[in-house]
Design brief:
Blueprint: H1 2-11, H2 21-34, H3 39-46, H4 51-55, H5 62-73
Length: 75
Amino acid sequence: MAENMKRYGVAIGIPAHLVHPHSLKHSIARHSIKNGVGIEGLKTYLGHKTLSSTGMYLRIDDTEASAAIVAALTT
């Protein structure tokens, strides 16, 4: 499985050092947060024992932060 993941990941432009099974978990978590899944539900789904472990998926990048501010100021 890891070989296929690396091959397909690199084929779609993901840097080889970022292609690993944990990246799938991270991707699912980030998409879930963006689509309104609550932190408690995500914690349970990911199998985390503490919210602090799940909290790492709440971080946003500069582009997301800027878009949120623009949206808040234009509504």
